[in-house]
Amino acid sequence: MRISTSMLHQQGVSNLQKQQAQLAHTQAQLTANKKLLTAADDPAAMSTAIGLDHAAAQYDRYQDQIDVGRQRLGLEENVLADTGTALQRVRELALQLNSGTQSTATRKIIANELRQINDQLLSLANTDDGQGNYLFGGGQNGTQPFAGSNGNISYAGDQQQRLLAVTNSRSVADADPGSEVFQRLRDGNGTFTVGSASGNTGSAALKSARVTDAASWDGGSYTLSFSGGNYEVRDAGNAVIAGGAYTAGQNIAFRGIDVSFNGAPAEGDSFTVGASAQRDMFAQIEDLAKIAESPNDTEAQRAKLQTGIFQSLTALDHSEQHVSDVRASVGNRLAVLDDAESQNGAQKLQVSSALSDLRDLDYAEAATRLNLQLTALQAAQQTYTRVQSLSLFDYLR
Amino acid sequence: MSDLLSIGVSGLMAYRKALDTAGHNIANVNTAGYSRQRVELASQIGGPQGDGYVGAGVTSNTVTRISDALLTTRLQGDSSAYARAETFAGLASRVDGWLSDTDAGLGKPMQGFLDALSGVSASPSSSAARQTLLSSAGSLADRYNSLQSQLDGLDTEINQKLKQTADEVNRYAQSVADLNERITLAKGQAGGQPPNDLLDQRDALIKEIATRVGITTTEQDDGGINVFTGSGQALVLGRQANTLTTGDDAFASGRQELFFSGGQNITAQTSGGIIGGLLDFRRELLDPVRNDLGRMAAGLAQATNDQHAQGMDATGQMGGDFFADIAGSVYPARANTGSAVVSVGLADAGALTGDDYQLSYNGSSWQLTRGKNGSTVTMTGSGTAADPLRAEGLSLVIGGGATAGDRFLLKPTAQAGSQLRVAITDPSRVAAASPVRASAGLSNTGATGVKEITVGDSSNANLLSSVTIQFTGANTYSVNGSGSYTYSAGSAIEVNGWKLSLNGAPASGDSFTVGSNTSGSNDNGNARALAKLGSVGVLDGGRSSLTAAQSGLVAKAGASAQQANLQLSAQSAVRAQTEAEQQSLSGVSLDEEAADLIRFQQAYQAAARVIAVANEVFQSLLDAARN
Q1: Claim to verify: residue A119 and residue A228 sit in the same structural domain
Q2: Testing the interface with B: which of A37, A38, A166, A325 to mutate, by most B Cβ within 10 A?
Q3: Which of B183, B349, B548, B617 has the fewest CB atoms found within 10 Å of its own CB?
């Protein structure tokens, strides 16, 4: 093939340019630490990488939600633990009251302590999460959720729960509405209450109150009265539904429940049995404080007091159980967060490693390539200058 | 003896010419488009003599240009294809760079927006989180706006480049026509001898035209060359040059098209060269990318607004538009005679195709055709505001009177990217909360909690009204104290557009209240749904999420740029091959010319010697006569 001078020159230059272009690409890859500089390098890989970027960012968002949830649920758990401790103390005080060795003065002290515990519970119920959000306000944040005094506490929050999305499919509530923690409680044993009639003169005090067949309990009001060694139970329509001879301490059963009494009822003493009603934690404690302040001079007064304390203790049992249930649910949610975190972490690791495969530069490969390209460029440069320096004219003298 | 003298002289003359030509070749070694020349020598036959023919020396017939017309034509074609690929690849790599860049692309601001939504979902009452949401939404809108303006800038640049290149073509065409005239003249003056250097110049000019636009050429008998555009119009006809002009399209949509001599629109038939590259890029990459960007903007705005409208803001009102409404662009044909005005609404982003359309009126009804292939698109509706014409996600409202033949160009999403902007400025207007909240009566004995309350129909007029559900039995309930409805365990209670599901089995006397979620500033019911926006199907009939659409767009531009690069390197190799062939044939080799110089110099010196010998021979004859 005939070679023309300008062709030789052009070929040399275009070769140099080609080498330099490749070198520039490798340099850009090395300085950016990226295999894919633009989508044109590998559109499919770039598209996949963008999808994975979104996925990785989503896992980061889940992690943020998990962190928020963990902080709030951790705080709630602390508050619930404090609440449990407070209820424990209430229980101790109730037992002290029940021991019968208390004077009017010491009972007054107990009443005061109960009211202080109530104040403490109120402030626990109004805890904020450190970022100006009430922990137990539900969806409401404008006013503090619990307000009031003397056990008459109203709830200004609502029953909405904030759910935090922690994985693609799971959401976790980051708190419980205050109403569900402190208010959804019932007096008595949760099903029924027993009250002594104000004119009772005997020493009969409630010893046990149980539900034996929940389906038979109809929630009505009943009156249990003692007379002439017999007892009888009348319903709201004054019809006798149960009765018989009374022996001390026996179980009196009707409508799926049974009750028994300590002490001896006087002739004509009566007790009312009715359905439990909703009564929040604060009111329950206030009830106990009021019992502590009530007189216990006569046998009958002491019996009435014992009946009240018995019921308070039952209700306290339920309250403690309830708080501990909520606490267990918080614990479960914290466990879900841990689980979600490790699940997300594993998935994000996969995403990251896939991303790295797609996008990150293999330094060893790139450095070798750079060397190779440098050598090639050098060779091209040297060849060019050598070839260009040859001319027949040099010999025409 | 006079013969020998004239033979010597013929040699001197011929080799003087040959040396001149070699010198000319050497002088033009770096002249673009120059073809090496050669003096064609021939021996001169002598007169008949008794004992045979004695030659009469050498003569130079002509100076030949070493070139091949077929090769020249091939090189023109290859230059056209290369210039097209180079133009396309250059523009495509810019678009690819914008979209792929992690800092300039859509990825980061989209992530920022989703991060901020997630932040509001985690802390709905935090005004910092709400403010972050607004500013990150603003950044996202800004990025759409700036990408749109970059693409629009490219469109303007293409308009300018088209005009500039057409002007260059016109100048070259005029020069070719002038050269045609000079070549015909020069040929006549030299008795038919070719004016080699003019021919080279003309070939070079035609190659310049071919670099700018695809052409075909034919040679005339008188030595002139005619140049035709791809559409068959004569750009150069002998001594006559015509012009390419640029001008607005029929709809004045801000787009320049190519016209022949200011008349016929030849945009569609033009290919090859820089102009072909510009037109192909505009049609194959710029328009689809811009339409897709707009489609994503419309999808983002619609999906966000739809979900936002399902929630309640911190002021207790239902969520308003989060992003401002986006409308399609309409360009009436300049030739329209009626007064009709068409407005294009993007009613359903999921059904948008990213195509352009033409809407035309035939005197009684409207027809919609797809821009890229002219196929008919079926529309429903009548075109009034109450009942717009609907097709493929568009809603067209027509005002004023159209006359038959009126046409409109619809570019539904071409400018949508520039319209994306955040409509709310007050952080408290972010509708993070569910519009309704439910609570279970505290004395409930059976169903003791609300499992979930969701809104099915946020447009229900009574959505926010207070409602009390009172169970009158385990399976029956009344609404606001009246009626008796059957409750089946596990299924939701639906009233006024909301759905309520319960925890536990309801007992008689249980009650639930549902009402407006006023001042529910700490509720994240709607923020949670908003935070899922990135992954829910929004476009392509719900098949593509916004994030998938984004990676699709990047991949589309990237694949186009990649293909353009491959084409460029292929065309570059083809052109290099043809150039090598052409250079191999026509290029000047200095070494060859140096050898020729030596050769011709020696021959010249020898011819001079012949004259000397003739002189000596003649002298010896004179000497013989003198003695």
Answers
A1: no
A2: A38
A3: B617
